[in-house]
Design goal:
Helix content is about 50%, strand content about 10%. By secondary structure, it is of the alpha+beta class. The protein is globular, with a radius of gyration of 19 Å. The model has no long low-confidence stretch (mean pLDDT about 95). The protein has nine helices and four strands, in the order H-H-E-H-H-E-H-H-H-E-H-E-H. The longest helix has 25 residues. Helix 1 packs across helix 7 and helix 2 packs across helix 7. The chain has a four-stranded antiparallel sheet with strand order 1-2-4-3, with helices on both faces. The protein binds flavin mononucleotide. Flavin mononucleotide binds next to strand 3.
Length: about 220
């Protein structure tokens, strides 16, 4: 059993090591085994009602990366140099009664049909009134996207734990990226839309400035 304090230090070191890498060393590639490990961290991430409403599109085709670069102001250095470039897609088909939800609950989570039918009543009221989203496709998409960010965070931390650099990316024209991916036939007829992107690789140079964060006492409030 690894000493708990050693583990804690390793994890804190990984958080300090991770920074939004602007350019990667284009010669240094992540091994298949290591990248699989990062993907598994995404796959094993939690999601609301266990929906896993994500697809990890790994764009290794440099022609497609160049098309994305033209509409991604926040990924100029990353798209051309990253060892692996991931576009995280969010499922849009996430109404309580959609094919995707039925499939996920009964086939992936293996809920018996009667249990699923009871759960579905709860999902319906959740989406109708607790966190209203049924009358608004944008709200459904946003809910899906929120889940994908959990996978994103886990993938970046996991990568950092094994010395892999990364950069999360929202700096792009969403409509343009969706249209590029749609033309490539990658959005399953509109059932998927881009949520966020992430570049992975090995840094070309260390960050110029030390990491800055607000202090814990500025962001934590205890209620006793
Ligand atoms: C959701 C999200 C989107 C981001 N988008 C971009 C981006 O498009 N381009 C970029 O260079 N950095 C991007 N960043 C990186 C942030 O600017 C960075 O995480 C923040 O300034 C803190 O710095 P650090 O990650 O190096 O500690 C993004 C971060 C997050 C979490």
């Amino acid at each position: 059993m690894v000493d708990k304090n050693i583990k804690k230090q390793e994890i804190l070191d990984a958080f300090q090591f991770r920074h939004a890498t602007k350019r990667f060393n284009p010669e240094k590639k992540i091994s298949d085994n290591d990248f699989q490990f990062v993907l598994d961290a995404g796959r094993l991430s939690p999601s609301s009602i266990g929906l896993e409403p994500w697809v990890f599109l790994i764009v290794q085709n440099m022609t497609l990366r160049e098309k994305l670069r033209e509409v991604s102001w926040g990924a100029q250095g990353q798209l051309s140099t990253a060892s692996h470039f991931v576009v995280i897609l969010a499922c849009t088909d996430v109404r309580y009664d959609s094919d995707y939800v039925v499939d996920q609950m009964t086939k992936v989570k293996k809920m018996p049909i009667d249990i699923f039918q009871n759960a579905q009543v709860r999902y319906k009221s959740f989406q109708e009134s607790d966190l209203p989203m049924l009358d608004n496709n944008r709200a459904l998409y946003d809910w899906s996207c929120r889940q994908t960010y959990i996978a994103l965070g886990n993938m970046m931390t996991t990568a950092a734990l094994i010395g892999i650099d990364s950069c999360p990316i929202e700096g792009f024209d969403y409509q343009a990226v969706n249209s590029i991916l749609d033309k490539e036939g990658l959005l399953e007829d509109g059932n998927l839309r881009v949520s966020v992107m992430a570049a992975f690789g090995y840094r070309e140079e260390n960050p110029k400035r030390p990491k800055t964060r607000r202090e814990l006492n500025q962001i934590v409030k205890w209620v006793h």
